[in-house]
Specification:
Shape: globular
Largest sheet: none
Number of helices: 16
Structural class: mainly alpha
Radius of gyration: 20 Å
Order of helices and strands: HHHHHHHHHHHHHHHH
Distance between the termini: 13 Å
CATH topology: Growth Hormone, Chain: A
CATH superfamily: MFS general substrate transporter like domains
Length: 415
């Protein structure tokens, strides 16, 4: 396949070894990988009230330390994307998961701002391989008519992990301490690596796929790169900061206990995962052969504004409902943006493409958390209204920039 062809072409002939249910096995494996990544990522956020109380950190200290994950995740995504495209899915994902498993376990040794910041930074580097690997898996194994759903499946494990974590590791932390919860994540990482070593080979993955002759790095002078960034990083931003601050808002803003939190905080990640599948199906059905799904983007943009009304009531139920709808819409932006971008990048750069998207999303998260931190410490309990409106308005900015970049540009691009 020449580099000028996009990811909308047929699956390589080598993938013909996988038939029927077998073609979905690699995506299921990557769903487990994204499940693991969000377990490792969210355990700190869900247990934040307990950790803050035990270590003496402030809410702003905690948020600033957490933001280092997003900073290194920004770099890790495009780097792992290019590396996975070059060395292959099997080796690339084993290496990435080994790095972040060690980092996740290291949280159990930390008790200061510097320690948590370092652990989060290394975790972000390793987890940068998650979404590039997930999209590359769908591209290698599935035809275009099923690819958005394959991406949704690969990505959805993350939201399932965020759902299960407070229900499983939350009680474990209450009974045995929060440090034990981080040690448990290490065992899960080892188990996943053993599973991937078995399934990341024929007949499930093709023996040979198109790879660039040299490592390809993102070219930020290209319009298609910036169009991808603005259609993904700003519009799909909600789940990142929302899930980071959710427990703190419910505990400090609405005065819920850790036990009450464990019964609520799994809902927004669940609707995020539902958003993957619903909007993945919608993108395959309504954005097929459409590199510019303006209508779908505008619908999602209007819906995203509802997040700004979270603080209009002191009801935890209303807050969870609006936040959950926001993560559902965020998942939709991800699926539609990647579907549209697949018409602009060749197959052998699919992981790099996703690395650009996820890396830029992470960078926006880092900057946003730096802005949110001081607002959380505002007089009279924090300016939560400003925080939620700031997040709610970013999708409109991103889609406006995406439309401006696409004005007059060809519908497909060559490399």
């Amino acid at each position: 396949m020449t580099e000028s062809k996009t990811m909308t072409g047929a699956v390589p002939d080598t993938a013909a070894r996988a038939v029927g249910w077998q073609v979905w096995v690699p995506c299921i494996g990557m769903a487990l990988c994204s499940w693991l990544s969000f377990v490792d990522r969210q355990v700190l956020n869900i247990l934040s009230p307990t950790i803050i109380k035990d270590t003496g950190l402030t809410g702003q200290d905690f948020t600033n330390a957490t933001s280092f994950f997003f900073l290194t995740y920004t770099l890790g995504n495009p780097v792992w994307g290019s590396v996975i495209d070059y060395i292959g899915l099997r080796k690339g994902m084993l290496l990435a998961v080994a790095v972040w498993t060690a980092a996740s376990m290291s949280h159990s040794l930390m008790g200061s701002f510097a320690g948590f910041a370092l652990a989060r930074a290394v975790l972000g580097i390793g987890e940068g391989g998650t979404f590039p690997g997930g999209l590359r898996t769908a591209v290698e194994t599935l035809p275009p008519t099923q690819r958005a759903r394959g991406i949704a499946l690969s990505f959805s494990g993350g939201t399932i992990g965020a759902v299960m974590m407070p229900l499983l590791l939350g009680p474990l932390a209450i009974s045995y301490g929060w440090r034990t919860a981080f040690l448990a994540t290490g065992a899960l990482g080892v188990i996943w690596m053993a599973i991937w070593a078995v399934i990341a080979r024929p007949p499930f993955l093709p023996a040979a796929v198109a790879r660039p002759p040299v490592v390809k790095w993102p070219n930020f002078s290209e319009r298609r790169v910036w169009a991808l960034i603005f259609s993904y990083a700003l519009p799909a931003i909600s789940p990142g900061p929302v899930l980071t601050i959710l427990s703190i808002y419910l505990s400090q803003g609405l005065h819920l206990t850790q036990g009450q939190l464990n019964g609520l905080v799994w809902i927004p990640p669940l609707t995020w995962g539902i958003g993957y599948f619903f909007w993945g199906w919608a993108a395959d059905k309504f954005a097929a052969n459409n590199p510019r799904p303006v209508g779908m983007f505008l619908l999602l943009t209007v819906a995203s504004l509802t997040l700004g009304f979270v603080t209009s009531s002191a009801s935890p139920s209303l807050a969870i409902a609006l936040i959950s709808f926001s993560t559902f819409i965020g998942g939709g932006f991800q699926m539609v943006a990647l579907k549209a971008a697949s018409y602009q990048f060749p197959r052998e750069q699919s992981a790099m493409m996703t690395g650009i998207a996820s890396g830029s999303w992470s960078l926006v998260n880092f900057a946003l958390l730096q802005a949110i931190g001081p607002l959380m410490g505002w007089v009279n309990g924090g300016r939560w209204d400003l925080i939620f409106w700031l997040i709610a308005l970013l999708p409109a900015v991103g889609i406006g920039l995406w439309m401006a970049l696409n004005a007059g540009a060809p519908k497909t691009a060559t490399v």
